[in-house]
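Journal club side-thread
Mid-discussion, someone asked how the predicted structure for our own chain would compare to the paper's figures. Pasting it here so we can look after the session.
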Amino acid sequence: MKCLFTAALVQLCVMTLPAGAQDILILGEIHDNPHHHAVQAERVMDLQPKALVFEMVSPDRFYGEVVPEYRSPTGLQDYLDWDASGWPDFTMYHPIFDAAPDARIYGAHVPGDAAREAASRGVAAAFGNGAMMFGLDDPLPENQQVAREALQAAAHCDALPDEMLAPMVEIQRLRDALIARAAIDAFRATGGPVAVITGNGHARKDWGVPALLARVADAPDMHVVGQTEDDAPLQGGFDEVVSSPVQPRPDPCLAFQ
């Protein structure tokens, strides 16, 4: 057990695994919760991975490179065009980069044109070569398709027309697949360990990134951490769930009214 204090001086106590206990450590998050990023930074510091995969980073910025020593936090933020990305404040993410300064960085963000292709032509067409490795050319089981469409409807406050739900699921499948590809590329290039920084929805073991990685020949060992708030249940199956204080936030459905 290791206890740490977040920037908000809230004590968090989390179980830590010895470095090397897994080939790939997948660290979920609720994107705007700073406590979750503090936990991620602590885990990355403990593991000292040879590579870090970020859902939030574009692969045209980093795909196997180390952040140059001369690049300041502000310079890195500018280089990543973070302020235009829509992700929460970079100050929450920068300590994760700092925790493993020698790690190679792999971006796994889905560009807009690829997302549009997934929505219109399906995930396999948008992913391209290697789609079969992750089973992207197969339709989802019906019960999973229904469940994933329901999640998309709820995430968008039931404001999406029904015909948009299946395309949104295809985009999410593409996000899972690009993160999985970056993780396996990073592992094969470095020998691991690799840490993956992503949202809880992509970290879930039942159908997210871990499920895709499990399909790969000689699949690497994985440990999957989900992060919740105030002990709320977390769906999807995780090896470990860490709870942090809830992050106050406005009602997201106000944007759809």
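Post-session note: Residues 1-20 have pLDDT under 50 and may be disordered.
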